[in-house]
Amino acid sequence: MSLLRNISDGLRWLFRKERVTQELDEELNGFLEMAAEEKMKQGMGRKDALRAVRLERGSLEVTKEIVHSASWESFLGTCWRDLRFALRMLRKSPGLMFAVILSLGIGVGANTAIFSLVDAAILKPLPVEDPDSLRVIEWSNPEFPEGVSNINGDFNQISGDGVQASSVGAHLYRKLAHEQTVFAALVGIADPNPVGIAVDALPAEQVSLQYVSDNFFQGLGVLPVIGRPFRAEEDRVGQEPLVVVSHRFWVSRLGGAGDALDRSVRINNVPARIVGVAPPGFFGLRAGQWTDIYAPLAMRVAFQPGQSDGAPRGEDDSDWWVREMGRLKPGVSETAAKTQIAGLFRSLAAEAMNLEPKKIPELITLSGRRGFGALNARDASALWILVLLVGVLLLIVCANVANLLLSRSVVRQRESAVRLALGATRARVFRQHLVESGVLALLGGGAGLAFGSVLARSIHLVIESGRDPSSMFDLHLDLRVLACTGGLSILTALLFGLAPAVQAARADLNDALKAQVGSVMGGRLRLPKLLVSLQIALCLTALVAAGLLGRSLENLRWVDVGFDRENLAYASVNPGQAGYSTERLGPYVERVRQELARLPGVLRVSPVEVRLLSGNGNLSRVSVPGRPSSIEKGVVAPTEAANVNSVGDGFFETLRIPLTAGRTIERRDIRPNADAVVVDELFTRRFFPNENPLGRRFGFDPKDSNRYEIVGVVRDTLYNSLRREPLPTVYEPYLPDVRDPIHFAIRTTMDSARLAQAVRAVVASVDPAVPLIEFHTQNGLIDRLLRTERLLALMSVAFGLVALILAAIGIAGVLAYAVARRTNEIGVRMALGATASDVIRMVLRDSLWMLGAGILIGFPFAFAIGKLLRAILFRLEPLDPWTATAALFALLVVTLLASWLPARRAVCVDPIVALRYE
N or C: which end of the chain has fewer CB within 10 A? Predict the structure, then answer.
């Protein structure tokens, strides 16, 4: 009750102050009258009695102040007055306020933008019900599982540690889901697939489709906002094709129409009916990849038909393509769940595939809070490096703002001293200055929120440039990002506000009140100079990081790829999505090729399965007759692997890959079961060293090691990565497949914009039902491959330049203030015969001392960040001398430029004016 009474009294004082003050006056006056009456009973007159009581009890105003200061509402009241005073003081210094808010906006905004990216890519949980109870089920095995012909999803087959993956066969998944009892729901998911979808009479467009189990939406607690989820009987081969569309697809492609339910669309030219619309914000189970369409697992047979060992595609036990994610039942421990599901998996796998117990993979359960993840280790490291860089930038901003406020605090030292002399406590003065810093931090946080929003969108454009529209992070300012901005604002207020507040509260009354204009006012600016040295140290760190990342990007851009990448483009179509059969596919490809070749400015055209340096590729095991191989053990050794690419005739001439021996792929080789292949020089060095490779045979299976004959050797090229050591490459004759997109390599003299327009027209003229799904130049593909490196380089260079500018402002500000404080000293020196060069040397000495101290402090940090970047750098040492020299030179130039204006002002000091106050 006492707490409630205290709160009630405080609220009355805040909102009915005059009434409460009147009641307190009446109470104190009543007490005064009672005490006076006691004195009057002792024989004193009323006037003397009142005077005696006042002498004994003290001033009523002081008593009222003591009563008010003992309550919590008094603290709020003084804070409100401090806030109003802070706003008045800031209005008197608009230039300072603008500089501080701009600096804080840059620092806080950069951190906000990077946090929004890290949050979306790494931290934010799936948009489902209770994501912490989800578990991803994976398996590991020393060997490629016996009897398994294909594994989809994230797995590493070329490894001395064996194979690890998260997918199983569709039949095996269904048995597991039916017999397990530890998960409230065990859902099955396939990786998203590109498909062609036609709405009404419009041309087909490529979208992302994901096959899911019938309990997918119910198990995740994500129910459609319109319509219904799938039913168990609908996940069966032969049933009517049904789909649930994403909210994004519903709005963008169907106009958000209320009659979307039961509407018919064509997926890969197969009719399907819409039964539901997923809720907004639900993107699937992989961060950064948006799924447009969801279909039951069994619909893979209908939408992407094919054969695998005689069984429909997706229903073969040897085809492992279904990932698993379960939701733990309440009260079930992690250990109990893993024990049951692992035992059940072993028994079901042994039964379904007739495996020996020692050959059955071991199950692993992982947290499913973030889904299956979309970032590889290098991209995740890049994000954390950006976090480090923006953290360094924020420290530089705080040091710079602290210096500005310290200079202002010294100017206001007489004001602080007067307030202390009039009775203000040092804590009160400290709080007043801290409130001013808080106001600046709040305004800077608002500016940072606006700047962070713009920067986040810019980063989004850099990351997603050239990527599939279905692969995008959702970067927007939600409550988590707002909380980050608020926390950063509070942190910055403490970081840059404490030093000025402490300096103001520790003001020496005698020195401050006796100080005159131009006097030294005590001290040698040690703290401001230390802060500038710290800025220089952090700036050196940022510049070294920017230099290393920038030079590494340039090294990657100009690496020799082994072919002519200029004036080379790729056009991509997918006739299979428009219902083309294998028989119709060959003539279609040849007609498109001929029409493209007739375009003015087009020199050569050739179809190809894998576009070089697109990030994709095919990997196979190489088996040479008569040689032992670890392939028979089930694991591919790196020395036995080779890249495989299917290419049309004229491919090498189109890409200008030099032929070093034999011949290239010719028209007569383009036929089923052709055995002629072309290999690169690395292939011959690895598999046929010191031999003539022409006419030699090899295969991709130990049981068929005589399958292919080498008819030509070409120069080595980079296949799908600019960083990794290249593997040998095999080029086989190209036969198009209805399940895969077709890429046409085009050598041209036209600019890319005109060529894209012409190619789109040609594709539409051959068959309007088959759209151009992608068009990229070779350099565009390489830039897309380098988007992580480009983002790091751009951001680090931008942050480095901002850090350099802030360091220059810090140096110039401290030197200008030091010159102003030493005006009398400079006047005396010049009156006694000091020359202009002597004065300039005096100013430069201070700046060079700060620079030297900053470099000494910063070198360990620069060394550490170089080591941290080692895994990302390409053909560059972490302690690259040219980068370090360039950073030091930039700092030296900026320091001298920042010192020029203060030095010039010092030289212009008139001794007579400077000594007038002495």
Answer: N
